[in-house]
Every structure is written in structure tokens, then in C-alpha cells.
Write a sequence for this structure.
DNA sequence: GCTTGTCGGTTAAGCGCTTTGACAGATCAG
DNA sequence: CTGATCTGTCAAAGCGCTTAACCGACAAGC
């Protein structure tokens, strides 16, 4: 292994000077700098990042903390993770993937000094992991929000997203619009914030329109989607449109509606919010989706965190990005008279 | 920050002894050990992993090197990554995600000394990244294979997988079976090994049955799937069954076939190999899939690499795992007379 | 009784880098 | 010409840990 000492010897300077050149920490005479740079490239020297981390007490590693990601096809997560990793790399940081399921384990990891900062995914409305994170004194940013809006976060703007979906459906004449959200088996009463915020936005929108809300909550699976279709058919037969905030149930909802004799979009219009264009295309008919800004969020989260670490920004980031409407074939004019009624 | 020195002082021993207790490196008298452990828990001490890495020249970090992952829904990748991360964690290692697109960048990263070993994803049949990896002298394992079977790898057993798919279809009476594979836009003549190996296995199977092969190559998108349906219809009208090794084109193939008046599975049976159960369920009708052993591969890859690092295993791992057949509704009896002929 | 081990522990030398404080030598004001 | 200021470089002190070398005490072997 070629070390800084080797470079220094070859360039006839002290290792301190080499360090100054590499980091640009202090001005170095052009002629000396040239000698050092020559030595570096001749020896093919790469600075040891571990030693650097120990000496500077900055590892330049960011942790991406997340519960076990679900096995279902989920382009959103991949996009998010990739773009966060990219954003970090471009600023000289690496991203470590840390599946953490229990809080105790998380504290241990954070205390090890391996990471300079952390990004926490799948944040829930009450989240003990956030308390741990705060206690660990490691700078962080949340992906999603807890009940405490003062913490640093980036999140989907559900109000804007739901409003746009509602407007889109209303422009097709739909009057009665239902919402299908997600329930997780593990913690049915402590949902990810996005579910609750989407629901709140929906309720607000319905209240503003002076229409009774219709919320259906199912699991994020094909079976859940079919269950939603049945519930919709039985309990809200006059609904002509559905907004989904349940990526995993999208396909099942279409299948289920069809099985009940309701064709999409003739009898029922569907918008799947917070998902991806690709998922919409997989389904027949192609779903109109509100694509989650996963890539943007990933990059923003990484950037915001690094800004904090480097003192560029000292107020905690509070960033909201709406989803993007991508029309498919699952939204059509409201039927003159609902097929179910 | 509480250091080893603090613990040592409190327990009235030297820091070396503390280290021996923590690592179990040398025997320590029970009474002394108890004092040290008490001090550790009283002070809530966590060893600094960076210092440990520098001193022991082992970081216990593994890199997961991959090109930019595609944005389409891809449960396989997530499963793989998650289970590799878990496998690593259980053995005291962390997994860093490293999107690398250019070789030069990769060499730099590996030379930095941050990682003890690397896992390389999306290996292609000729892969310059593998040469870089070898040159860097960082131990590694490939996910997939190059042309050189002597390198350490874990991979899907495509021969077994394709054979099982063929057998399954033949048990339903299918005689003419086509294969739909994937072409990547970026490097059309240097495919991931899996495509070529699947194709080779298919050709072998057809040769053994004395049937002419029918291979269709399209992009891994919905559009690609529809294109495959058209090609199949026009060029291989007598084919009554298709094996897909192209996750992204699955949905499009079904849509395309239907658009051409061929219903699944009555006129055309489909098996999608090397994908996930969840993806199969999203499609109507539910696809019969050969689920990729992503989770197994992830864990095996991590384990094999760590075994090598720790000298437990010194012969390079060569592991092949077949996909698992999960029946859906896309395979049915061969029609008496092909609808296309 | 003297050697030879063994056990349980300590001392100290790094690991490869960053960073502070000091210090020559050149420059400049008065 | 003297003292003050700047510039460019260096020596050295860590960062917190691992680990080789060593050491004292005590037991066993002959």
C-alpha cells in the first residue's frame, strides 16, 4: 500500500504538505504542488479514507436506515435509494444501507461512529426510531414526517397531490370519489405518515366540496385490492372514481372491479397516487398515476443532510414535493348513472 | 465520546485488557472481565469502528457495486439487496451501496481502503469491471457470471430453470415453445450473462426435443412486450407457449397478445422466468412465474464473500440456485390447433 | 532448588492521516 | 536598518484502537 509518507518522500516534502495539497487546506507553492502531484500520480496514490476518518473524525459515510423493505415490486424505493446514493457520491459521501428493525440495534449502530449522518425511511407518525436518532446526536433527515413538523424532513406533498387528483377527476365529471389507503399488518394503528397525511388531505378536499368522504383501508397486496373493490361496490356504490394511495393494491383493485362487472374506466375511474409510471403501464388498462417524486426526494434528502453536516445550511430542511400526474387509460368521463346504483 | 481509555481507567486495567475482553482475543480472568464489563455498561461505551478499522486494517464493510438500477418495478433487486445486507449484518459487516457506472471511478473507490470485499451485480459476459476488481486485489464475489467460470460467483441456475419451465409446458401438451429474452439499449451485444445462459439452456432443451428454437429479443419494457407479441404472432404463429426471461416485458406481452386476439392461457401459455410472485399477481391473468431466488442469492453471496475474507473458505464459491415454479393462471392446455395457424 | 511453563496482565509501537503551532526566509513600513 | 507581517513548510501530537513483545508471579517437573 502506498501511503502519504511515500508520496512525501518522493516529492521531498513533509507529509503535512502532501495533506495540504490533497485537501486544499493550506496554500502551497506552485512548484512544490507540482512535485507532489507528480509523485501522487507516479505512485498511483489514493488516500486511505479510514485513516482520514479517524484523524478528522468525519467518515463521510451516510446511513440509510430503513425497516425491511417489502418484497413487492417497488420502483419508488429503488429510485429513492439510487438517487440518494448518487447525490451523496457527488458530494464525496458514501451511503450505507442499514436494515434496522429494532431500536436497540439502531442505537448501537449509530454510536459506533461509522456514520456522519442518517436518513430515515418509512417514518411513522409516532416513531420511536426518531427518538433514538435524536438521542444519538447523529445529524439526520427524515423521509416522511412524524407528528413533529419541526424535525428535518423531505416528504411528498400529499395535499397538493390529492388536490390535483381530485381536480382531475372532477374535470371528468366525477362527483363521488373514494379513497383507498393502506393498512400494514405489523402496526395497524401507527401508519406511515404518508397514509395519514393523504387521508387528511382527502378529507379536507371532500369537506371543501361538501361531499361525504369514502375511505377504504386495505393491505397493500393484490388481495387487498380485490377486497377494496368489494367494499367499494357494497358500501359506496355511487362512487364513480377512486384515488389509491396504496401502490400494492392497484392491480388487485382493477381485477376486483372487473370481477364485479365494473369496467375501468367506463364504470369506474382510478388514479393511483404515489406510485410509478412503470407500475401504471403494467396494468390493463394502463393506470393514470400520480408518480411519486422518488428521485427528487432522494437527492434532496442527501443534499439537505450534507448541507447540515457541512454547516452550509443550519435551519432544518422542510421540503415537500408533489407527485406528477401521468395520464393513462383508467380515467374517463363519469357514467351518467353509476352502474352500482 | 467515551473511549476505551475511559473504560480502562474505570475498571483499573490497561486499555489492552479492555480490548481483549471486547474482542475475546485473549483470555482474561473472570473477575477482571466482570469489572470491565461493568465499566462498559455503566459508561455505555461503544467501540469506535473507525479506529478499530484503522488499527486492524479491516473495515468490516462490504461494497455492493452495481450500475444504475433501472426504475421499473423490480422486486428481485430489492430482495437481493436486502438479504445481502442482512446476511452481512448478522456476521458483523455493513453493506455500502455503490452505484458505479465508470470503471475509473470504481478503481478509485476500491483503492480507498474503505471496503474489505465487494459484491458485483449485473455482471455481463465480458465485463471490464471484473478486471478492475481483480486488479484492485479486493476480494469479491460476482452475482452472475462472466465467460470465466473460475471466478467466485453466485448465480441463478438457468439450465435447471429453463428445463423445468419446458417440462411444465410440455406436461400441458405444448410442442412449440418460444423464448422471449431481453436486449438492453446500452450494450446490445454484451448482455448480462443471465440472458445468454438462459438462451443457451433454451437452445439445448429445444435441441434435445428436436424442435426448432424460436427466440425473440426485445427491450425490458411494456412496449418491448407488445413488440414480442407481434413478432411471435407473425414469425412463430405455431408457438402455443412462451417462456419469458424478461421481467419488464411480461405485462406488455400479455397485453399485446390480447390485442392480437390471442387470449391467455387459452390460445397462448406464458411462463415468466426469473421474476417474482408479486409481479405475476399484478397481471391479469395472474402469470405462472419462476420466482428468482433473490433472497437466497443475496444471503449466499454475502456469506460466501465473508467466508473468503475470514479464511473459512478458500476455494472460490460457485453457487447455482434454480428459480421456483409458482403456478398462476397463464398456463393451460395446448390448443388443439394453434389460433395463429 | 532451579528450570520451564502457564496465566493474566501491561507497555508501547503502530495504523495513515489531519491539524496546530512553530519557524525560517522573504517582504514591507517607517 | 529594525521590527512587523506574510508565506510556505515542517515537526509532532494526536484520532481510538489492535497487537506483538514482554514481564511478574506462581505451579509443576526433575
Amino acid at each position: 500500500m502506498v501511503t502519504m509518507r511515500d508520496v512525501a518522500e518522493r516529492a521531498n516534502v513533509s507529509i503535512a504538505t502532501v495533506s495540504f495539497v490533497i485537501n486544499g487546506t493550506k496554500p502551497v507553492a506552485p512548484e512544490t504542488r507540482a512535485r507532489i502531484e507528480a509523485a501522487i500520480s507516479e505512485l498511483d496514490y489514493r488516500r486511505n479514507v479510514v485513516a482520514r476518518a479517524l484523524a478528522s473524525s468525519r467518515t463521510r459515510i451516510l446511513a440509510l436506515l430503513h425497516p425491511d423493505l417489502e418484497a413487492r415490486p417497488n420502483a419508488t424505493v429503488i429510485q429513492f435509494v439510487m438517487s440518494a446514493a448518487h447525490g451523496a457520491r457527488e458530494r464525496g459521501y458514501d451511503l450505507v444501507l442499514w436494515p434496522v428493525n429494532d431500536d436497540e440495534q439502531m442505537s448501537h449502530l449509530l454510536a459506533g461512529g461509522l456514520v456522519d449522518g442518517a436518513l430515515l425511511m418509512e417514518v411513522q407518525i409516532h416513531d420511536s426510531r426518531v427518538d433514538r436518532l435524536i438521542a444519538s446526536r447523529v445529524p439526520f433527515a427524515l423521509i416522511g414526517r412524524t407528528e413533529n413538523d419541526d424535525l428535518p424532513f423531505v416528504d411528498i406533498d400529499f395535499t397538493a397531490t390529492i388536490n390535483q387528483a381530485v381536480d382531475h377527476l372532477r374535470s371528468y365529471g366525477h362527483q363521488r370519489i373514494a379513497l383507498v389507503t393502506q393498512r400494514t399488518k405489523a402496526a395497524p394503528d401507527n401508519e406511515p405518515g404518508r397514509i395519514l397525511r393523504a387521508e387528511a388531505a382527502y378529507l379536507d378536499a371532500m369537506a371543501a366540496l361538501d361531499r361525504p368522504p369514502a375511505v377504504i383501508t386495505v393491505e397493500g397486496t393484490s388481495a387487498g385490492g380485490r377486497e377494496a373493490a368489494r367494499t367499494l361496490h357494497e358500501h359506496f356504490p355511487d362512487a364513480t372514481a377512486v384515488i389509491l394511495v396504496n401502490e400494492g393494491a392497484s392491480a388487485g383493485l382493477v381485477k376486483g372491479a372487473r370481477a364485479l362487472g365494473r369496467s375501468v374506466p367506463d364504470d369506474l375511474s382510478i388514479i393511483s397516487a404515489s406510485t410509478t409510471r412503470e407500475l401504471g403501464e403494467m396494468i390493463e388498462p394502463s393506470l393514470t398515476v400520480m408518480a411519486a417524486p422518488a428521485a427528487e426526494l432522494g437527492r434532496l434528502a442527501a443534499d439537505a443532510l450534507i448541507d447540515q453536516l457541512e454547516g452550509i445550511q443550519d435551519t432544518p430542511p422542510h421540503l415537500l414535493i408533489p407527485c406528477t400526474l401521468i395520464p393513462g387509460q383508467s380515467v374517463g368521463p363519469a357514467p351518467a348513472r353509476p352502474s352500482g346504483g
